């Protein structure tokens, strides 16, 4: 497949300051896309933009908090004002919120939903009128393997990631007549600042953000509806779907919850 297959496409990436979002933005730029970079941390966004510009590509830094609908809408409006369209949305922003159910509060769930679900929903709703008007586009929603099989004690995070998975399933079916593809991505543990505090067992080793970015790029090429990675996580998800009790046993046996260090998880948004 020839490089630069995204030449002159406009891609808006949330959570673009680090982790999966940053890796995805850089890879899409290498394929020729113009990048609208959305995240809270302006300094880190500018570093990503400079790296993109050194490739000879265009980048627009759009500091915004994805939990605030008006800020997301403004970022999309600025993207359209600059380039006249949005061809790709990659919703990568996230926050790792975990709590055992006996200690979990409504506030924990609301905090997780604010970033992991509503941050996605606001971006989707903001780009949809433009993609419908163009009669084309591609929406990529980054969920998690936790959005297929919940791992205790990730209740708040799991609730939001399952919600993203359900939203993606509906969007994919309803938007097909408009020429808009939808891909939902379900990565296992990813080596990002969001879970830097978490040690994980060898069977659930953290994969690099670039691996997820490459999977996103392949999904854009093939218009793939769902991506689960890496392979061992995909097999675990399939087994758990067919045999839930067996999936629970694997979760306990291999300590898939991992071990938390003292450091607090960071939000990537």
Give the secondary structure arrangement, pairings included.
Layout: E1 10-14, H1 19-30, E2 34-39, H2 42-54, E3 59-63, H3 69-83, E4 88-91, H4 106-134, E5 137-142, H5 155-175, E6 180-187, E7 198-199, H6 209-222, E8 226-229, H7 231-242, H8 244-253, E9 259-260
Parallel strand pairs: 1-2, 1-4, 2-3, 4-5, 5-6, 6-8
Antiparallel strand pairs: 7-9
Helix pairs in contact: 1-6, 3-4, 4-5, 7-8
What's this entry about, in short?
By secondary structure, this protein is α/β, with parallel strands linked by helices.
Protein architecture, described:
This protein is α/β, with parallel strands linked by helices and 269 residues long. It has one domain: Rossmann fold (3-Layer(aba) Sandwich), CATH 3.40.50.720. It is built from eight helices and nine strands. The strands form two sheets. It has a seven-stranded parallel beta sheet, sandwiched between helices. A two-stranded antiparallel ribbon has the order 7-9. Strand 1, helix 1 and strand 2 form a beta-alpha-beta unit. The longest helix is centred in the middle third of the chain and has 29 residues. The chain starts with 9 loop residues before the first strand and ends in a 9-residue tail after the last strand. The mean pLDDT is 96.
Low-confidence stretches: none
Specify the CATH architecture.
3-Layer(aba) Sandwich
**Annotation, overall tally of beta strands:** 9
How many domains? The number is: 1
| CATH topology assignment | Rossmann fold
CATH class: Alpha Beta
Share in helix: 40-55%
Calculate Rg over CA atoms.
Answer: 18 Å
């Amino acid at each position: 497949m020839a490089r630069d297959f995204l030449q002159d496409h406009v891609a808006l990436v949330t959570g673009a300051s680090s982790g999966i979002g940053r890796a995805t933005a850089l890879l899409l730029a290498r394929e020729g896309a113009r990048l609208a970079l959305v995240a809270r941390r302006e300094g880190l966004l500018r570093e990503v933009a400079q790296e993109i510009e050194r490739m000879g590509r265009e980048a627009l830094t759009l500091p915004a908090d994805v939990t605030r609908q008006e800020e997301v809408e403004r970022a999309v409006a600025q993207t359209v004002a600059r380039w006249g369209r949005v061809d790709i949305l990659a919703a990568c922003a996230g926050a790792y919120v975990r709590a055992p159910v006996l200690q979990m509060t409504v506030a924990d769930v609301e905090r997780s939903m604010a970033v992991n679900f509503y941050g996605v929903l606001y971006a989707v709703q903001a780009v949809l009128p433009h993609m419908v008007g163009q009669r084309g586009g591609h929406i990529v929603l980054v969920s998690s393997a936790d959005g297929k099989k919940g791992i205790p004690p990730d209740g708040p995070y799991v609730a939001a990631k399952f919600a993203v998975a359900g939203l993606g399933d509906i969007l994919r079916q309803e938007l097909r007549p408009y020429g808009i593809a939808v891909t939902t991505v379900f990565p296992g543990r990813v080596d990002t600042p969001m879970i830097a505090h978490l040690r994980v067992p060898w069977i659930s080793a953290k994969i690099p953000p670039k691996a997820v970015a490459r999977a996103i790029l392949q999904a854009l090429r093939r218009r793939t509806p769902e991506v689960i990675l890496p392979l061992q996580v995909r097999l675990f998800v399939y087994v758990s779907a067919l045999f839930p009790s067996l999936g629970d046993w694997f979760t306990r046996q291999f300590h898939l919850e991992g071990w938390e260090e003292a450091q607090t998880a960071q939000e990537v948004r």
